[in-house]
Structures are given as C-alpha cells and as structure tokens.
Design brief:
Elements: H1 2-16, E1 24-25, E2 28-29, H2 38-51, H3 55-69, E3 75-77, H4 79-85, E4 89-94, H5 104-117, E5 122-127, H6 131-143, E6 146-152, H7 153-158, H8 160-168, E7 172-176, H9 183-195, E8 201-203, H10 214-222, H11 224-237, E9 243-247, H12 252-258, E10 268-276, E11 294-298, E12 301-305, H13 330-337, E13 341-347, H14 348-362, H15 368-380, E14 389-394, H16 402-408, H17 412-429
Parallel strand pairs: 4-14, 5-6, 5-8, 6-7, 9-10, 9-14, 10-13
Antiparallel strand pairs: 1-2, 3-4, 11-12
Helix pairs in contact: 1-10, 3-5, 4-14, 5-6, 5-10, 6-8, 10-12, 11-12, 14-15
Domain Tryptophan synthase beta chain-like PALP: 70-390
Pfam families: PALP
Enzyme class: lyase
Length: 430
C-alpha cells in the first residue's frame, strides 16, 4: 500500500504539470458544452479536485488496483523479439494483464468511484473495441452501480465477444445505428443520454478527449502505467529507454505511458495511429501522421479532426475498432505541435504481419489496437542499434479480436469451424 501511495503522489505531480486551469492544452481542448450540462461539469470539476486530496479515496482506489485489478503490471523483456530484429532491446509494458485485459480498468474504476462520491447511482459509457465497455460494466458491478453502454453497430459486429461479456456483467448495451456506426456515433449517443440523466448518472468517458475536465481525469487515472514502466526500466537496465511506443485512438493508453517521461527530452515518445488502407486511401484514422487532421470543435472540445472542406466529420476506418475515431486527445494534439510526441501510422497489412511475428516469437497475443504500437516500432527498428531500448505499451490482449484476426489471416480452418457452428445452429432451430 505504501508503494501505491507514493505512486499516486507522483501521479498528482505528473498530471498537474500538463493540466491548464482553463482546460486548454496550447491551441486545443476547452469546453464547448450545452448550457444544460454546465452544472454537471461544474460538479465533476469540484469532486475531481476534492478526491485528489482525499486519503480515504486513494486508499480504496489503490487497494482495488492492487488486489482486484492486479497492479503493478509487469514490464517484460522480449528477448526473442529482440533477437529476431537484432537491433534495439525491446521491453513490453503488460497492460493486457490487468483484470478485464486492458488498461481501461485503471480509468473505469477511478471514475466509478468518483461517481459514487457524487452520489450517482448509474454510469453510462461509450466503447469502440469494447474493452472500455467491459471495464465500465465490471467497475459498475463491483461498486454497485447500474450501467448503460453505447456502441456503434459496426463495432458490435467486430467485437461481439465483448458485447456478450458486458451484458453478462449486468450492463445494458445499446446499439447505435446511424452515421459510420462506430465510436464517434457512440459518443454522440452517450452525450444525448447524459443531457437528460446527469442528476443520477455519471458519464465514464473512456478516452482522454471530450470537454474539460475529461482529458485531465482520464490521463490522471492512466498515469500509473508510465510511472510503473519508468521505475521498472530503471530497475532492469539502470537507465531510461530511448523510445516509448503506444497506439493512439483517442489517446488514453498513450498518455498513460507517456506522462512519466515528459521531463526526459532524450526519451522519444511515439504515437502510432491507424493507417488502415494507407495514406490517400480515405480509409484510415491517421489524423496527425498523415497530416490530414484539421482543427475543429466537436463533441465538446477543440482538437484535430478528420473533416471535409465544409467542416463535416469524415468517416474513418481501421481494422482495430478502438482506434477508429475521428479526433484525437487535445493533449496529444498539443504535444505533437510542440514536437514532444512524434506521430506515425501503421497500415492494416503491417499490423497483421506484426501480430504474426509477436505471437511466434514471444507467445503473446496483443489486441489489434496494441499491435499498431508494435508495428510502428518494427517499422523504425532498422534505424536503431543494440544500445537502444524500446518500451512498447501493450494496452490490451487480443482474445477479443479472434474473428477479425482469423479473417485477416485468411485462416481456412477457422472458416470451416464457423461454417460447422452455423450449420449446428441452423439444424437446432429447425
């Protein structure tokens, strides 16, 4: 427990360094909300500031992280992957070993506890890959809150295993059937719910986006990732890494692992976006790496969005549902503009190739979202030497992606299995 108290004292210092009073991070951020939600945001700000000083809150939160979620997660030396490339030493931060299989639980537990502090009895959330939905449903069950999760129909089809678990955990899952039927549309629908329910309901935003103070809250609860990784690499190697890689959809896992390294300019921070079918294809979610994101205001905040000349949001695409988002955290947009984070993108093809390498060399199955971070590191690794150290944040595990991966690998045995199961269900229905 004393170790976690030290960690969260560090979180306070780290997170405070990047949060501005007006909710802006350079040119991005802010709060563009309907008047009806002004009291809800004021209540959240007040209680968020209060819990930072609340010893009882942190004692309970740290206990849940340690004894329920399973923190600290390991920093695994990938010796066979390192030998495979013969360049930089590769370490992997294992957020896949959190309970529920992803970094999302760090934030969901914190915000569910915040909801109870505010006297709320219900939480709502949006989810793309489903991991945030599962984490929110889990936290709600653990803390005795009811939960409603919004999810685009397209994402539900891609990540049905997580839909199954959310429902079994007691959450109501509502499909969103308009727009691109992905994360952007799920966020819009969750906001509509919140407008009419905020007196009893807290919106557990899953990524470091949205109106102030949500980017600050999410990055605050995720900062534990980088704080642990920094301590672990110093213990293992006696020095800091050369580079830290993380995938970027909205940006919660990237900000989680990056924050502890902000003060160390010799550590390069690399965000890897969803390159989808490549630059110029119109089927990707690379807002910064492809230089196509333009400043705009939507969903309550100002950031770089993929939009057309009329300011309408473009449809996005990625093999990884959790990265299929039209905007990016205002904190990351600012860090990119200031040159503190370098952005690159990995295409679907590069991601599938990277996944096969990771599975066969390390026996690990990262989520497709996390595999973007690996693919970005692999694309860069020929420029490195044996004296370099890479940390790759494996933000989640890939069990949920079995249908997409099997399809991506064009696996004939998997196709035959699906056909057999379909025939069994059809025969049973007759």
């Amino acid at each position: 427990m004393s170790e976690y108290k030290t960690i969260f004292q560090t979180i306070s210092a780290t997170a405070e360094a990047v949060v501005e009073d007006n909710g802006y991070y350079g040119n991005y951020g802010g709060s563009f909300i309907p008047e009806i939600l002004v009291p809800a945001f004021a209540e959240i700000k007040e209680h968020f500031e209060a819990i930072k000083q609340d010893e009882a809150f942190w004692k309970e939160y740290c206990s849940l992280l340690a004894d329920y979620s399973g923190r600290p997660t390991p920093l695994t030396y990938a010796d066979r992957l390192t030998d495979y490339f013969g360049r930089a030493k590769i370490y992997i931060k294992r957020e896949d070993l959190n309970h529920t299989g992803a970094h999302k639980l760090n934030n969901a537990l914190g915000q569910a506890m915040l909801a109870k502090k505010m006297g709320k009895t219900r939480v709502i959330a949006e989810t793309g890959a489903g991991q945030h939905g599962v984490a929110t449903a889990t936290a709600a069950a653990k803390l005795g809150l009811s939960a409603t999760i919004y999810m685009g129909r397209e994402d539900m089809e891609r990540q049905y295993s997580n839909v199954f678990w959310m429902k079994r955990l007691g959450a109501e899952v509502i499909a969103v059937d308009y727009g691109s039927r992905t994360l952007k549309d799920a966020i819009n629908e969750a906001l509509r719910d919140w407008v009419s329910s905020f007196e009893t309901t807290h919106y557990v935003l899953g990524t470091a986006s949205g109106a102030h103070p949500f980017p600050a809250i999410v990055s605050y609860f995720q900062a534990v990732i980088g704080i642990e990784a920094k301590e672990q690499i110093l213990r293992a190697e006696g020095r800091l890494p050369s580079r830290v890689y993380a995938c970027v959809g909205g940006g919660s896992n990237a900000l989680g692992v990056f924050q502890a390294f902000y003060p160390h300019d010799d550590v390069e921070l690399v965000g890897v976006e969803a390159g989808g079918q490549g630059k110029g294809s119109g089927r990707h979610a690379a807002r910064i790496a492809y230089g196509e994101g333009r400043a705009g205001v939507a969903q309550g905040f100002k950031t770089l969005f993929l939009q057309n000349n009329d300011g309408q949001m473009n449809d996005t695409y990625s093999l990884a549902a959790g990265l299929d988002y039209v905007g990016v955290s205002p904190i990351l947009a600012d860090l990119s503009e200031r040159g503190r984070v370098r952005f690159t993108a990995a295409t679907d093809t590069e991601v599938v190739e990277a996944l096969e390498i990771i599975m066969k060399t390390e026996g690990l199955i990262p989520a497709l979202e996390s595999t973007h971070a690996f693919a970005g590191a692999f694309n860069d690794i020929t420029e490195s030497s044996g004296s370099d150290i890479f940390i790759i944040n494996m933000s989640g595990r890939g069990d949920k992606d079995i249908f997409n991966v099997a399809e991506g690998l064009n696996d004939d045995e998997w196709k035959a299995f699906i056909r057999r199961k379909a025939r069994q269900f059809e025969d049973g229905a007759r």
